[in-house]
Amino acid sequence: MQHRPLSLSLDLIARAHPDPVRDDPGALTLLTDAELGRGLDRALARRPVSADGLWVFGYGSLIWQPEFAVSERRTGTVRGYHRRFCLLQRRFRGSTDRPGLVLALDHGGLCRGVAFRLTDDDPHLTLLPVWRREMRGNGYESRWVTVETGQGPVTALTFVVNRASDRYTGRLTEAEIADRIATGAGHLGPSAEYLFRTAEACAREGILDAHLWRLQALVAERLEARARSVMQEREDVPPGRRGLAAS
Fold first, then answer.
1. What's the rounded Cα separation, in Å, for the pair 138 and 188?
2. What is the pLDDT of the chain when averaged over all its residues?
3. What radius of gyration, in Å, describes the C-alpha atoms of the chain?
4. Alpha carbon distance 28, 137 (integer Å)
């Protein structure tokens, strides 16, 4: 697949989602730091003794917004899992009224992403910020996986979907995924922005994922229609009442 411009853009997303969404802390139960710390200790206890350095494998937002200092990065492939929008977001990139979707690794196939090497002096302290970010919403499970890179294989920590979670959507069609991403928005922004930044970051890394590319085109089509509808609604509201309509 040749690199070509994205159909989706930040401008289009902003026009389709012009109004901010308030945070609703009750929309998602989060694990406490004590619970997260115990889970991280268990994951580190399962770390293979043959692991050469401390690595994390990113396939979504970690590629464009890592949660750690990086001493080395390599593109690579994980086998046995594929990248898919299958995790429901009722907070952050979605809400209870407009749930969005974010990526997870699900069973089967393969996934190209980025392996990040971290300092290994204190693995618990180093990994806790990214562990808190990924694991506090009970949507993921941790796995140690082999990442095949051009410089040789590395063992890395990654996050796969928790199929027992009520946030797991199962295998939706790409049209169904696009519908949810196009409408989903939370206090951190629209679900479509997450898709855009991930597709853009993957393309920069030379990772041209057909699933992401088809989805961003489908979402762009839906946002074009949504942006036109938003514009028409605002034109129909008298100028003196536009602040009330947006509240």
1. 18
2. 92
3. 19
4. 7
| DSSP assignment letter at 163 | T
Integer Cα distance of 198 and 173 in angstroms: 19
Please enumerate in sequence order all residues whose Cβ is within 8 A of that of 203, keeping only pairs 6 or more positions apart, or say none.
3, 6
| Pair 14, 8: CB distance under 8 Å | no
- Cβ–Cβ < 8 Å for 82, 108: yes
Q: Any idea which residues carry the catalytic annotation?
A: 134
Give the single-character DSSP code of 33.
H
From residue 183, alpha-carbon distances to 6, 96, 135, 175, 189 in Å are: 19, 12, 25, 13, 11
All structural domains of the chain with their residue ranges: 10-232
Report which residue type is found at 246.
Answer: A
Residue 112 backbone dihedrals phi, psi, to 5 degrees: -95, 135
Task: Look at residue 247 in the predicted model and tell me its pLDDT.
Answer: 39
- Do you know the residue count of the chain? 247
Q: Is 181 exposed, middle or buried (0-12, 13-18, 19+ CB in 10 A)?
A: buried
Considering the entire predicted model, what is its pTM? 0.90
- We find that the CATH architecture of domain 10-232 is Roll (3.10)
Q: What is the model's pLDDT at position 170?
A: 93
Average pLDDT of 192-196? 98
| Distance between first and last Cα of the chain | 44
Measured between alpha carbons, how far is 90 from 74 in angstroms, rounded to an integer? Answer: 32
Indicate if the pLDDT at residue 221 is higher than 80: yes
Report how far residue 133's alpha carbon sits from residue 214's, in angstroms, rounded to the nearest whole number: 27
Q: What are the tens digits of pLDDT across the range 107-145?
A: 999 999 999 999 888 999 999 999 999 999 999 999 999
